[in-house]
Write a structure and sequence with these properties.
It is a single chain. With about 475 residues, the protein is α/β, with parallel strands linked by helices. It has 21 helices and twelve strands. The chain has four domains: about 5-125, 3-Layer(aba) Sandwich (Rossmann fold), CATH 3.40.50.2300; about 140-305, Rossmann fold (3-Layer(aba) Sandwich), CATH 3.40.50.300; about 310-380, Helicase, Ruva Protein, domain 3 (Orthogonal Bundle); about 390-465, no CATH class. The strands form three sheets. It has a five-stranded parallel beta sheet, with helices on both faces. It has a five-stranded parallel beta sheet with strand order 7-8-11-6-12, with helices on both faces. Strands 9-10 form a two-stranded antiparallel ribbon. The longest helix has 23 residues, at about 415-440.
Length: about 475
């Protein structure tokens, strides 16, 4: 039996003509082609078919991002061939550094498809991405910058400091750095530094369990030993005791851990990735964190913005969590409506990505999209909504415009139609300008905030001369 006949290939294509064409050429090469016309049905049948390759047709950027992220959540080693003429697709693949996703342009040429399939199957035999390597979901400029840093840092041994509000995904970034590096097959040890002290360094461990440990059963000395050639993720650095700060500084400066029972010192090759919910630089200014340790940790820093500062990623994250939880409970995948995405994007998410994940989880477990909105409304009642654009003051100002006063001075020239149009035009322009300022002139974010399409926003910006 040939190699090709042993493989199942799943094809997602919405266009029937292209769908039939792809099926005919794939089948002609001895592969078993399984065709789907929607992402949801394809995702529902993916595990059962166990394909060696998924081919995605010419979808929009948003749909491609959703499909690829969900596929990679299910199986990081599953290769994908994307057929698209959209350059943004290439940009997305390059930003996420997927080495098993390939893109070919349109129109489809059989020889290009065949060459890509051979290349993909050849690469898959060489290496597989660890399923433990997390996906960093998001295509906003902020997330693209973080993904680039993660890729660059994966090939170094430098200490990294990751800062951000609770729930922004600091641990995911730390894991991504580790599992993309040559240390991926070695331990990744997470410890909560708030519970460690000088005394714990001197004590012997109560128990040793490299597969999973609690602070109560480990002392820091043993943790660094186990993490040798791997990565130690130090969480909650802002809560670390002064005595442990001194010990950690010694490890970072000299790469050693004192045994305390004698003067011998052991060399440890463990990469340090530290995280903090607070700004350590400000803690240094207040005398609550060692300056020398901060400078040692702050060689390379990744600042993760809160979710409210990357509104563009909210719909993509919501869809990803929706697909993930549907898959976890064996429920058929479903699409979130644009109305739901808009509502979720208008919320400021004080607990960040973790809160969004919980809202979507609740929706999937209950079994309908409406439950998500109901839960969301309950959160709104607790005053968690971001401060909306204050339009009332602007509208009042519009009523005082000289043009309106001019109409009112001469009742013979009053035209309700003209006044209304003037009022609407001036108000719309002011609100749009305020939305653009609120989002630092990020047009995509402003469009989401105003609940209009990106194209409509661009047209209005041109009309009102706001560019």
């Amino acid at each position: 039996m040939t190699l090709a006949s042993q493989h199942n290939i799943v094809i997602l294509e919405t266009n029937q003509v292209r769908r039939d064409y792809l099926k005919s050429i794939i089948s002609g090469w001895g592969y078993f082609a399984f065709i789907f016309d929607t992402e949801t049905t394809c995702l529902d049948n993916l595990s059962m078919l166990n394909p060696s390759l998924v081919i995605s047709g010419d979808l929009s950027l948003e749909r491609t991002l959703r499909f690829v992220n969900t596929l990679k959540m299910k199986d990081r080693s599953l290769p994908v061939l994307i057929i698209s003429g959209d350059y943004a697709i290439h940009d997305f693949i390059d930003t996420d550094f997927f080495d098993d996703i390939f893109v070919i342009g349109t129109p489809v040429e059989p020889y290009e498809v065949k060459m890509a399939i051979r290349r993909i199957h050849g690469n898959r035999l060489k290496s597989k991405m660890s399923q433990d390597c997390p996906l960093l979901i998001g295509n906003s400029p902020e997330m693209r910058k973080i993904k680039k840093l993660v890729f660059e840092l994966s090939s170094s041994k430098e200490t990294v400091l990751v800062q951000g509000e609770p729930g922004t995904g600091k641990e995911l970034v730390a894991k991504a750095i580790h599992f993309k590096s040559d240390r991926r097959n070695n331990p990744f040890i997470k410890i909560n530094t708030a519970g460690f002290s000088y005394e714990s360094f001197k004590s012997e461990p109560v128990g040793v369990n490299p597969g999973g440990f609690a602070n109560a059963h480990w002392n820091p000395k043993e943790i660094f030993k186990v993490a040798d050639t791997g990565t130690v993720f130090l969480d909650h650095m802002e809560k670390m005791s002064a005595s442990f700060q001194a010990e950690l500084l010694q490890v970072l400066d000299e790469g050693i851990i004192s045994t305390y029972c004698n003067e011998e010192k052991e060399t440890v090759d463990a990469r340090i990735i530290a995280s903090a919910n607070a700004d350590l630089g400000k803690l240094v200014e207040k005398g609550k964190f060692r300056k020398d340790l901060f400078y040692r940790l702050n060689v390379i820093r990744i600042d993760i913005p809160p979710l409210r500062h990357r509104i563009q990623d909210i719909p993509l994250l919501a869809v990803f969590f929706n697909d993930m939880f549907c898959g976890n409970i064996g429920r058929s995948h479903f699409n979130l409506s644009q109305k739901t995405k808009n509502i979720l994007s208008s919320y400021h998410w004080p607990e960040n990505v973790r809160e969004l994940e919980n809202v979507v989880r609740h929706s999937v477990l209950i079994g309908n999209e409406e439950s998500m909105l109901n839960k969301f409304c309950l959160s709104n009642q607790k005053n968690k909504l971001a401060t909306p654009i204050n339009c009332s003051e602007d509208i009042y100002t519009v009523a005082e415009l000289s043009d309106v006063k001019k109409y009112l001075k001469d009742l013979n020239k009053v035209s309700l139609r003209d006044i209304s149009q003037e009022f609407i035009t001036r108000t719309e322009k002011k609100i749009m300008k305020q939305a653009l300022k609120k989002t630092n002139w990020n047009r995509k974010k402003a469009a989401i905030l105003l609940d209009i399409s990106y194209k409509s926003l661009l047209n209005k910006i041109k009309t009102y001369g706001l560019a």
